[in-house]
Amino acid sequence: MNIAIITGASSGIGEEFALQISNKYSDLDEIWIIARRKDRLEILSDKLRAKARILTLDLALDSDLRQFKNELDLISPSVQILVNCAGFGKIGPFALGSYEEEVGMVNVNCKALTAVTYFVLPYMKEHGSIIQISSAAAFLPQPDFAVYAASKAYVLSFSRALKYELHKRKINVTAICPGPVDTAFFDKADPDNQGKQYKKIFRVKPQKVVTKALKDSTLGNELSIYGWPMKCVFAFSKILPHKLILKLVYETH
């Protein structure tokens, strides 16, 4: 059985990946869509050309991660594409955030992504693709977005290293580093509108981010960065000291 697996598929970028992968890859027997909200997954499944297998899981829970592994072991599929989209962010000072939110970001953005990747690797086929959703926030530390940015830096570093480890198996790994995307992400991340207003200016449509991501993955690129503003951020983060950037952005307002 030839499949694609998409976590965080109930909305936003994850949902868009499911739609585009279903349209692009006609040889898939199933697309496994994973999220906590079964109703949203059922709506999505009706939109897919490929048969959908709905897995209603909370990947922050060890029990649900084990359930996912058990499903893999039972079916023993051939995985063509893995897209790790599950994740969330919370804007605001670290010390004022709740324990559940701050630690939860690490559990979902880092631990769950690592676990899912580890469980899937034995079933990845030659010339398969792993797409990990990082963020432009990974490029440098972000006060008032501290844990999220740090968690995405982990995803970026992990993905780039894993790409080289899997080279001999002919499995490609691409880290996707979008800036602000026009999804419901910020409804949860910033319900009180505490974030930087300039981020709203640079929001882009998820369809464009996903289209570029799939193209970059097909080309074997290790990074996918949509749009010149985020490409500039990436370049500046490599050239300028992070201390200087942080001073300019966070101490001049």
UniProtKB/TrEMBL annotation:
Pfam families noted in UniProt: adh_short
Domain of life: Bacteria
CDD domains the UniProt entry points to: SDR_c
Record bears the keyword Isomerase: no
Keyword hit for Nucleus: no
InterPro entries named among the record's database cross-references: NAD(P)-bd_dom_sf, SDR_fam
A GO term, aspect molecular function: oxidoreductase activity
Keyword tags: Oxidoreductase
Family assignment from sequence similarity: Belongs to the short-chain dehydrogenases/reductases (SDR) family.
The protein's name in its UniProt record: Short-chain dehydrogenase
Species name: [Clostridium] fimetarium
